[in-house]
Amino acid sequence: MVQYMNARLDATFSALADTTRRGILEQLGHGSASVTDLAAKFRMTLTGIKKHVVVLEQAGLVTTEKVGRVRTCSLGLRRLEEEAGWIERYRQLWEARFDALDKLVEELKCREKADGRKKRT
Amino acid sequence: MDGRRGPEPARAKDGATVERKSDRELVITRSFDAPAHLVYKAWTTPDLFRRWWAPKSAGVPLFSCDMDVRAGGGYRVAFGHDAASAHAFFGKYIDVIPNVRLAWTNEEGENGAGMEGGMPEQFAQLDGLLVTLQASA
Questions:
Q1: pLDDT in tens, B70-82
Q2: Is residue B67 one of the residues assigned to a domain?
């Protein structure tokens, strides 16, 4: 499970680790756009922009649909929400663990104090 | 409090903090209002470890727990209700300094990627004990 999530998170985060790709996501946040629109907007060649779109698509951050000769790109946000959810679940697990550890350590502290008193008397 | 320190570290009451350190690292930090040797003991004694590692909210109890706490020593923790349904996590300790530092890897498979966790080296300067976990791929 962790291995699987690691691979997915890697794909997401490396997809996000590029200014142009973050720009594309921001642009798509305002509405879907064709590959041609994006190329014009980012002043890139079609081939160049397609490469970025493929990386985003593989990471599940963008979905594309080809109708006739036009490929339209849209945000695939669900995936990003899943990643955020994963981090939150991870935090909750550790929070619960640490709360339990807190109680246990408190108990050990009391026990140690009691033992200390016994030794002195 | 001696005033030389900067902002106070987050205390136990404040809960754990989670920081995205880089694209591939998540750092969870929590401090404990207790002497370091007790937290170390709770982390390295199987009978104590199983009392907190699988909190009730995780929904699955700790089925078994074996630890060979020394640098290079292995551990194996299994969650589940019985041997048949148990799911094991395992790895090895990479840095063990009693009451000072404990770092381990979580292999959980053949690739050996996973987590490192432990007590950071500067813990002795803190009033409580700080535990930092660093998950990296």
A1: 999 999 988 888 8
A2: yes
